[in-house]
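To: structure subgroup
Subject: Chain for Friday's discussion

All,

I'm putting the inputs and outputs inline so they're searchable in the archive.
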Amino acid sequence: MNNKKNFKSGFVTLIGRPNVGKSTLMNALVGQKIAITSSKPQTTRNRIQTIYTDEQGQIIFLDTPGIHKAKNKLGDYMVSTAYQTFSEVDLICFLVEADTFIGAGERAIAEALSKVRTPIFLVINKIDKVETPRLLEVIDAYKDLADFKEIIPVSALKGENTNDLINTIFKYLEEGPMYFDEDMVTDQPERQIAAELIREKALRNLSDEIPHGIAVVIERMKERTKGNLIDIDASIVCERDSHKRIIIGKQGTMIKKIGMEARKDIEVMTGVKVNLKLWVKVRKDWRDSDIMMKNFGYNEKDI
């Protein structure tokens, strides 16, 4: 329990269309890789909580799936997960890109935001990609799209203005408790983060039509008796036999690459050596199966 005077705390959701940099921003704010990132849309599937704590207080960030037009039950789940946070938080950060124009997706999100009373920040990301005149045009175009309390330009990738965002968020939060220990940066179990890190490497290495149809399941994650090595057995689940062949690659080259890259990140997370073994399984149309989605870690009450 926190006893400090003037200590503020609260929950903040990061929302926006796919691939606007929500996960990259959240990782930059907490100073550690928690959420996976990729150039492909719909990277984040579950709601992920990370925790920022300093002398001012504690902010719990909710990174949500990108809001998009759903094509299957998994897509419906992802979008509902994002919208559900609107009524659960103390502040909403609506992320947009500095190098794109307002589209139907942004307008749909703005319409949904018009129905909430929660304070809303417009966070314009990727300002490192545009010159100042263009940024001013973007601000002018967006400023009347919703009732924004603040408009804050940032570069999640470069870490520009992220401190300004943190300090401004604290101005809108009320005094409150320390919800998590000050050294915690996420409430996600290591098992779940390991699965997501493997999925990230698959997203980055596989062709466009495959990643949306994969899930990763950790079958076993056990630390050896001496405590200097963790054994992890994981399955990459896909929807077609043709996808399985691509994921494995010629003479196993692709799955070896995915495993090697994932192992390095998991070792950074755990602080010990990791023995990672990967398998590929086919589960046809799992993204439209409530049972399989539940088995693959998606919250039953949101399906």
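Points worth raising on Friday:
Confidence is low (pLDDT under 50) at residues 38-46, 66-75.
The two ends are 34 Å apart (CA to CA).

D.
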